[in-house]
Each structure stands twice: as structure tokens, then as C-alpha cells.
Amino acid sequence: MNALMSLPMGRWPEALERARLADAAFAAAYARTPDRERAWIKTGLAAMYAAMGGPLPASRQRCDALGHDLLAASLDVPQDYVLVACGRDFLSPARLSAVVMAALCARVPDVAAVRVGAAWPKPLITTLELCGVETAARISRRDWAGLLAELPAKGRGVVVLLGELILPAGISPGLDVRRAAVAGKAGVFGPGFDAAALSFAHPDCTFYSHDGQCPELSGWQTGQGSLAEAGQAAYDAVYVTADEALTLAADAPLCLGPGREGFWLWPHLPPEAFRRRRFAAVVDPNCAADAPTPGPEDA
Prior knowledge:
This protein is an alpha/beta fold. The protein contains 8 helices and 13 strands.
């Protein structure tokens, strides 16, 4: 355990503790989320878990003789905590799941979520419940600044910002803050997708339908251009046939096929992003002490 930690596992700074959602709020949100929406969340979670490879070992250590008389050792262990902070504009169960699942697969012992300046939408609370994260709070912008100021007492961790959330001035320079942002638009090429499931997974995004039929749902518009031109549209994801998705036919971070409406991954936030790494290098004792050290030209 980090010697600087003064808050035990499970305990967070007062700005979060006094605004914790009660268990009844989780239960009510879960009960009021229709069965099909819970099924969409569960299907997405299962696929994310598989894509991330499940939980990493509690610790990983290796030692390698790398040549040029170099003996190197490395160790990685989970961060002490991950705090997921959502702005009031953030509404996506799928993108929230992708951060939380990565932290859990990294075996981070303390994972919490806060929503700054707004109430929690029921689908997001249900998502946290289905992920197994029951530490969540609704905090004011003033308390947001206080929470970040007190976080070093939790040890070493990562803060992930979702949505247009502004960092207050004067936060600790040692605080590790990552932003998970999207442009807020996706292209749908071809049939076979559940438009309602896509709208549920990303209600804060605009979907552009390129197959000639645009669903009569909020947030859907008719798209222009072919899949080959999708890169020019700067889509966060494209939804295409399974064959096209597997060939990575489009210039987009994610190419998703039918049945993957609730799936998401953040390329820069895999489970490994929520681990601490240590590295050591020594002279390999198995190398002769009087042997000349080879240079790069001898490799």
C-alpha cells in the first residue's frame, strides 16, 4: 500500500462521501430500466470483458536477459483507485461501461463514479450496477474542485473525464487525469442494425444513416458518401457489415458489426492504462566481467 495513503480502501474524500447515491437509488434505477435496455447493457459488457481478456493478474513480474549485458526486471500492479467523472452532457451507457470495465479488468480495488453538476440518468446508474460499481455520487462544481484537491489521500490513481468537464484551477500536478472524448457522431452503413439499441447506447451522439433509410428516431440523420469516404467525416465509429468490420474497411477507431450496438472500447484506455509500472536494469552477472561491452554495430 502507498505510504502516503490516509484513506482506507472503500473510503473516499468527504466531497464524494457526503453525496453518495443510496442503495435505493441504484435499486430504483434498475427496476425502472426496461428489460430490453438491461439486456443491451449486459450484451455490451460481456463483449467488452472478452475483448479486454478478463482480469489481469494481481501483479506481474518478469526478468529478462536482453543482451549487451543488460538484465532488466519489470513489475506492474493495479492503481490504488480510478475515479470516473461525467459531465452533465455525458449520457452514454456504452462509453461509461468501457472505462469501468477496463478499470475492473486491471483489478483496481477502488472504482467510483461522480456526475458533476447534474443528476444521474437512470441508464447510467443501471450500467454502474451491472458493472458491480456501487460507489457513485452527484456533486456540485464547487465540490468537484474539493474532491480533486483531496484525492491524493487515496494514494496513486487515475481520474477519467467523460464529456465536456472542465478541470478546476490549482489541482495537484501529480494527479493523473485522462480524457475520454468523442466527436459525437457515427456512420451507419448497411442494414441489420438495431437503431433503438444504438440510440440507447449513445444518446449523446448523432447517427448518420448511409443505406438510404433513416430511422425516425431522435439523433438520426441521412448521411452522404460511401464507406471509403468515412474517414473524411471523422466518425467516432462506423457500423458496417460483419465482413467489412473485420477487414477494417473504414478509417475510424472502431468498426462494429450488427449485434455490437452496445459495444465500445477506448483505444488509449485498455486495462494496462490503470496499472503502475516499475522497471529496473542491472549488468547481467552471467556475462564475463572482463568481456568488452558490445556496441550497437555489433548487434
